[in-house]
Amino acid sequence: MISGRVRMPLAMAILVTSTIRAAESPEDIKRRLCSELPAASQRYAARLRLYQCESECIGRNLGNGAVVFKHRTSSRQMGESGLFVIEPDATISQDPSEARVINSRYVFVLRKKPNSDWVLHDFHEVTQGHPSSIYYAGLNQMARGPYSLDPTTWLPESVQQPEFVISGTTDEDREGRKLVRIKYEYTKPNQTPTYSGHMLFDPDRYWLMMELEHTTSTAKGSLTNRSIYEYVENDGFPLMSRAVTVQSSTRFPQLSSESTTSVRYVREDAHESEFTLSAFGLPEPIGVRWKHRTPRFVYLLAGAGVFLALSVALYWLGHRNKSKS
Amino acid sequence: MSRRFSILCLIGAGTFTAWGAYSAMRDYGQVPALIADRTTFDLGKMHEGRYPIVVTLSNPSATDLAVTIPAGSCGNRSCLTSDPLDRAFKLCPGQQIEVTLELEVKQLGQFTSSIRLLACGTHTEVVLITVTGECVPNGGAHENSKQ
Hints:
heterodimer, A: alpha+beta, 42% strand, B: 1 helix
């Protein structure tokens, strides 16, 4: 029971920190999103490339509280090269760890069972393009920033489609920040599911998503993800620190779950040698040599040259001494 | 005394030269270690259904090969998968092994499917197995398997 003395300041605080007021029209906000969001996401991704990322994710069944998954991920990048490693907690899952890696010459997927070495699971040369058989979600998403509605819907592209309809918008003030909440509906061309929900953006900080409620509906039922994202500033640059997502389904209400992801970004350079088979203890493909490594035979032949020179010098010295005596 | 050291250095130079030459040959003289007896299969006219595709793999190199056969993939109107799925095994030097892939022909028309066999020994290599053919209606002409 909240007393009257507490209730009044609490109501004032709510009014101050979360004021909802009239906003731009849906047409105006759609135009603004189309003109500002793609560029903002590119600027954000460009700065995010200076950082390497590690995260821990834990998922619980909301019905019985049981931990259903727990894993650690590592995402490192350098230019167009990068890796995404996901390591399930062995006490909960028997799934192998998986590494998805791309460098300037080839892309590959490795898997590793507990206490075993990495095993090559897929391999393609980059000249043949990025193969659809390699699952890149993760590698792409971590590197591009929080602008996905789901693994297949990249918002900066989707928002520009005529099928992406904004049905309502409100402005919100939260802790001094002017945020924009957008209600949307979206149907991808030639696809059955319809997508709907609302997103809360921070237009002053790269249009970062602060909240997302995304529902995928089909004739059989619907699946809803409600996410809240938290950010920390690093030299004035916002980096995601925590994401909490509650997933619920009308078809399987007993399987509602909550996943919490803790994210740590570190500003440091990566080197392309990290994104090679050699980095995981596996041999390189035929013909692939990385520039930084001087082949061993060069050192051996140089050593042979030194021995030969020494041999000639000693022979000459011995011959001269013999002549003198 | 100097002459004796000179001969020792000459022996050292010879040893390093031989070792360097061997190392260079290993680096530049790499040859495929995983050999498949066939890499393309034109099966001609087939009906919808599942068919085994048998490939003999051998390892003529002097190094153990860690071979992985991924689960497989679906191509044009058909799927080519490994049986069992996601198979991994070691192929010793000189060893041969028969592996069975499963082709599932799913729709009428020309079909193509492929699967990439992966091997790690002194280097990493990929052997691509491709199966092509034409799926015809049941009761139609059946010129099965030019294998």
